[in-house]
Amino acid sequence: MLANFLNKSKPINFIGLTVFFFLGYLSFVFNTFSAEEFGLNTLLKSVFILAFFIVIFFIFNFIMVKNRLTFDNSFAFFFFILLTFSVLPVIASYKVLILFVIYLLFVRKIYSLRSVNKVLEKLFDAGFWLGILFILDSRTLLFIPLIYFAIYIHHKITIHTTLTPIIGFTTPLFIFFTYNYWYNQTEVFTELFEPNFSLNLGFYTNSKYLFFINFLFVLSFVSLIFKSLKTLTINNTFRRNWVLLMLHTLIAILYLFLVADKDGSETIYLLFTIAIILANGIEMITKKLFKNIALYAMILCAIGFYFFL
């Protein structure tokens, strides 16, 4: 049964779930070839995009396992695969996937702050990756409070921990400004500080993504309630990361609502937290029968959303 397969975090689970995604990806590639003229460029693009996804899967799995964001199982990776497959048509582009990789590298440093080792180095790296992300998508500046909240719940806020992320953040910005100044294109740099925000939710209310967002919000809310009732009563590292995860989700939702040019690709900033929240929710189900029903239902929902909605 599926629950037994996912109940332990093993290399075979990662391989099996990646193969599952690959089968779904083949359908996307087939549709691409049907819509475009078949050629070597299209084939190479599909291969490179698949390579990006594999890198993303490795980073996600590393963050989850290294920082113990779930128990020793593969439920989070399972949900991450399903969510990624669900929005595959709108995120399968170089620009979005590069953003996704950089975002996960930023997130990796945030959750690694649970350890007391090399704190300032991690804070610099977190600021650095967010700085690069800001250059590519200036609206991601919304995530900067996540750094300081992580400092607050895991370590003490001092002058060093306060300034180090700022130094890391400004380092790529300084390089980017220097480059644009050299080529007399400073307006490109100043445009970063004019992010395009809008509360217009027309895209979601008039597309199938309304169902997708509502469905995830309901499941995530239920998972958050039941897991929090147990987690928040115990003062440990997981509780601190769980609180951090909730704030992370709120910021990602805020980004989702505020971004002006909505097309569904902005959901990449939600996939990480939602997958982990759902995994912690499914862990609360003690009956394997009910757990299997929930897992198979999620597969059907993902396939239905991708192919039929």
Structure characterization notes:
This protein has 309 residues and is mainly α. The protein contains 15 helices and no strands. The protein has one domain. Helix 6 (94-111) packs antiparallel against helix 7 (119-136). The relative contact order is 0.13. The mean pLDDT is 90. Keywords: Membrane, Transmembrane, Transmembrane helix. The chain crosses the membrane at residues 12-30, 42-63, 75-106, 126-151, 163-182, 209-229, 241-260, 266-282, 289-308.
Summarize the structure.
The chain crosses the membrane at residues 12-30, 42-63, 75-106, 126-151, 163-182, 209-229, 241-260, 266-282, 289-308. The chain has 309 residues and is an all-alpha fold. It is built from 15 helices and no strands.
Largest sheet: none
- For this entry, what is the oligomeric state of its chains? single chain
Strand elements, count: 0
Distance between the termini: 28 Å
What characteristic shape results from the CA principal axes?
A: globular
Integer average pLDDT: 90
| Percent helix | over 70%
Strand content range: under 5%
